[in-house]
């Protein structure tokens, strides 16, 4: 029964069992939802974010009310000295299923349906 229901943590965070992996260095804000099989490493997830099944978020900041689709990847290289060493998604950014976003900055209220690398999306 426990594997069928999402695990509820403090501040209404919902993490679906069984195969998600979180950490190290991950901060998840209120009302975030993380699907089964998702992988989060060195990232900040702000309020009301939905990360779908099997999505990966590494070296990134995901803005309020954003969503990351199934099998999508949002990733930075982790080089904080580089011009675009991390990925930042603004408020209400939708990354559709199977889209890869690498070392990019995406301003608010955008939908990404194609993969991007080292881009600033205005």
UniProtKB/TrEMBL annotation:
Residues 18-121 form the Mannose-1-phosphate guanyltransferase C-terminal domain. GO terms for molecular function: nucleotidyltransferase activity. Gene3D superfamilies: Hexapeptide repeat proteins. It holds the Pfam family GMPPB_C. It comes from the Eukaryota. InterPro entries: GMPPB_C, Mannose-1P_guanyltransferase, Trimer_LpxA-like_sf. Keywords: Nucleotidyltransferase, Transferase. SUPFAM superfamilies: Trimeric LpxA-like enzymes. This is Mannose-1-phosphate guanylyltransferase 1. It comes from Zea mays.
């Amino acid at each position: 029964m426990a594997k069928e229901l999402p695990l509820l943590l403090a501040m209404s965070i919902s993490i679906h069992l069984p195969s998600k992996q979180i950490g190290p260095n991950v901060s998840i804000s209120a009302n975030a939802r993380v699907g089964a099989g998702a992988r989060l490493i060195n990232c900040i997830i702000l309020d009301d974010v939905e990360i779908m099944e099997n999505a990966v978020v590494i070296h990134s900041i995901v803005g309020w009310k954003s969503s990351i689709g199934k099998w999508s990847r949002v990733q930075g290289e982790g080089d904080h000295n580089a011009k675009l060493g991390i990925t930042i998604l603004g408020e209400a950014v939708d990354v559709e299923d199977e889209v890869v976003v690498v070392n990019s900055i995406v301003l608010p209220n955008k939908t990404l349906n194609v993969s991007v690398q080292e881009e600033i999306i205005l």
